[in-house]
Amino acid sequence: MTDSRAGIRRRRAATAGAAALLVVLGGVVTSCGTGSADGEQAPQRAELAFRDAVGTSYLRHYEPSEVERRAGAFDPFYVNLTASAASPGKGSVRVRNIKVTVDLSAVKSVTIDTMMKEQGCKRSGDLVTCTPKDMASGESANLWLFNMVEWQNAAKGPAGSMKVTVTSDNAPTIHFTTQLVIGSPRLTARENLHPASGPIEPGSDLEVRPAFGNEGETDVDGDLNVAVKVQGQATLRREYSNCRYDKADAPKKALCTIPGPLRAGAAHETDRPFTAAIDKTGSQGKITATLYPAPNTPTRDLLPDSAPRGTGAPLGFRPTDGSGFRTFAKELAFGDMQFRTTRMYDRQVNGFAIKGKVGQTTEIGVMDAGGYLDGDSYVTLPEGVSLIAHQEGEASEMLFCEYTDEKNRKVLCPAPNNPLPVLRVRIDKRVEGAQGTISVKPDPEHPDPDLSNNTAPITMEYVD
Fold first, then answer.
1. Average pLDDT of 351-373?
2. How confident is the model at residue 421, as a pLDDT?
3. Which of 14, 46, 103, 260 yields a CA-CA distance of 20 to 30 A from 434?
């Protein structure tokens, strides 16, 4: 790390299955409650939501001969909650007396054991009840409730469902159901989306054809979702009718639902490519394609049913040989590529908006915001926004932007490496017209052909 990045530290914390994935943390503030009839303060109204709810839970399967491997093995069950306020803008709120109930009456061939005392979990018959700590608006909690183990000699395949219900004193009741499956897929992906070996021309089209496979022991039944994202100076063509896009013109993200199953031992590639249109002054960027079992698509990659769709024929899969694939896990697999154009020395940034409610904490991938691969970036935060740097004890391995001058809201984001730097901010108050900037310095070793795009605005989009 250079002297300009002194004080920027990468902090590490061990976590099972950790992934450097960029997320937006839900959370807002709320108005104060009204007085009750007897003069006592009524509970402030709040909202709870499931985040990244897993619609299909795959459990490891062991053959009768695998006694040693089976000993002590289990699959944890988590419920990920976020808290916000029913009426934002007038103060903070806590969600009180949360109770998570899991109905096991439809579960078969699976043992539920090792209740997590940290979450106050107890079992009575077919019900597990847990009483985790209260949550403040803006908080997210990934609650490990209990462990699951398949019965000895259990057959692979569906093992029933678990119904999850969450109640509290001052938030509406929420529900979701996860389907249990004994046996796990092991998803794979072609690592390189495109064999580009040198710079490409600005203004050209770049076609990529994602490919995925399943080296596991169980089919992925049902629909599959392919999420494609373009970062930097490029956008996607809006092409396929079974794909939703984040906007009608020049989208940066697509979510395509393709009928399954993905059989164990099979490998497929998309039957037509995705097309990225490189900006006429573009210098570099990145394209990522990720496969999920559709019920397990995380919040960050979902798009609403109302999102714009493509106008062409639906995208599908066709068989491929699976060569050059990398093995991931049961939850996802992805491939990506970085591209550079012949304007590689034109360092540039794209402006972006900080979106959310007052009190909300948001994480922004600097690669998303800036669209460049080299050099530190310098941020001046809009008024009413504060930086949250890496916190001690966080279960992640990420590189965060940090203050260089907190009084004047000056922030340094280190040059993207592995992982990419994250700009995490909290919207403290609403300031109409607030604006900041993001900028990069020219390459000290090569002339920058266009200095006008080295700085761009950061704007605010408040959600009521």
1. 76
2. 81
3. 46
